[in-house]
Amino acid sequence: MVMSYNAGPELGIIEVHTTNEGGHPVEFWAKRCIERIIAVSEDAPEDVEKQINDFKDNIEKVIEQYMQNAIKSDRITINNQLEKAGFKEAADLIRKL
Questions:
Q1: CA proximity to 3, closest of 25, 14, 42
Q2: Which of 23, 29, 30 is nearest to 97 (CA)?
Q3: What is the C-alpha to C-alpha distance for residues 80 and 91, in angstroms, rounded to an integer?
Q4: What's residue 4's pLDDT?
Q5: 4-23: b (≥16 Cβ within 10 Å) or e
Q6: Residues forming beta bridges with residue 13, ordered by sequence position
Q7: What is the DSSP letter of 22?
């Protein structure tokens, strides 16, 4: 569910995105990232708009891949720290995520 409220020039646009039983997936965050970085003018010619949207799609996929890599790297770090601290069972649970 998305709720938006335009609070004017002082606050900008406030959005709320909710989930059930978990956080947002990588695809959600990659899309939010692209929305903040790349915009298409409403006055842009159709061919330019298409080119920009194709570029946005490609960059979104790159962001998704690097976010997945960061998540895997962080889980490895957490796993190793848990094992060092003697929490082998907890480390095994993290490894299975």
A1: 14
A2: 23
A3: 7
A4: 55
A5: eeeeeeeeeeeeeeeeeeee
A6: 6
A7: S
